[in-house]
Amino acid sequence: MRLGLYLNLYGTPDERPRLADAVEQAKLAEQAGFEWVVLGERHLHRPGYHEILTSMTWLAAHTSRIGIATAGIVAPLYDPVLLAETLAHIDVLSGGRLTAGFVLGYRPEEFALYGATQAERVARFEEGLEILTRLWTSDEVTYDGKFTSIAEAYLSPRPLQSPRPRLWNGGRVSAVLERTARMCDGWTSSFNELDADLPSKISEYLSYPLGPSSLGHEVILCREGYCADTSQAARAALEQPLRDLYDAYTGWKRTSTDASRYTQGWDDITARSIIGSKSQCADRLAHYTELGADGIVLRIQPPGMTQSDALRSIEAFGEML
Q1: What is the DSSP string of 146-179?
Q2: By three-state DSSP, how is residue 45 classified?
Q3: pLDDT in tens, 4-56
Q4: What fold does the segment set 2-318 form as a domain?
Q5: Which residue in 136, 143, 235, 274 has its CB near the most CB atoms, within 10 A?
Q6: 31-40-261-291 Cα dihedral, nearest 10 degrees
């Protein structure tokens, strides 16, 4: 099983965010055999949140082999030409280690900050990814769209990977699954996707035809994860930091249909996660392999968890690889 480590880029109310901890985790994950370090994106977070693109560059500079992935960039917020150029250069600087994962976004205040609306997000997403993909793979691009028009445009340098870096897309509704097959190369689940819902969603995603530029179907499951000597030790390290994060999500996701999942109890969380002793986590990894996962992204460190606890869990998961 290929594992990804979802890095904590949050700050806390009493200090500025520090990327040094994320670098230390990324180096350990690389040594332990993880496939990717994975970054998310957030804006208008008052305590602090590291900007995703510059953080990717910083992590690439401090590692040598591990993949640098996102899950995901809120694509409708970006100028697609600038995003294509920046991500292409990250792929070049990292030696071809980029996987670019995208999402539609859901926070009204983030759309307002960037001068977009939620009503436009699907159209902006599809137009933006088409421009990005064409710029990555074509010598020259002319495009006249609803939001962006370019004439005889090209990137130099283009991404190092050939024909291009892989694209992921996250979401849970049928339209997202179809769009992922048509425009991207891998589907990333939500961290709170119920295990009972995964077989039907994976099957549906795999049933949709691939688009002309797709590199294939890939199923990447995002899961809460913590591995310790015992299930009790795992709970002691993870429960309160994760509960604090979920409490924050109930506010951020007030307009989202899955907001109620962040008020669930510990047993509900563990039922859709990889949390416990080494043997329990190994069984859970095998379970997701049987469901059809090609990779699993683990969120090990919610805000508030100590660095030492996070490092111990990364090492424990690495012993399974």
Answers
A1: SS-EEEEE--SSPPSSSS--EEEEE--SHHHHHH
A2: coil
A3: 999 999 876 666 657 899 999 999 999 999 999 999 999 998 888 999 999 99
A4: TIM Barrel (3.20.20)
A5: 274
A6: -50
Per the structure block, which two tokens stand in for 221?
């499951």
Say if residues 146 and 94 touch (Cβ distance below 8 Å).
Answer: no
CA separation for the pair 25, 31 (Å, rounded): 10
Token readout for 74 is 């809120």
CA angle 82, 56, 140 (to 5 degrees): 30
Strands 149-153 and 166-170: unpaired
pLDDT in tens, 137-181: 999 999 999 999 999 999 999 999 999 999 999 999 999 999 999
Residue with tokens 């691939």: 210
Which amino acid, residue 315?
E
What does the pLDDT look like over 293-318, one tens digit per residue?
999 999 999 988 999 999 999 999 99
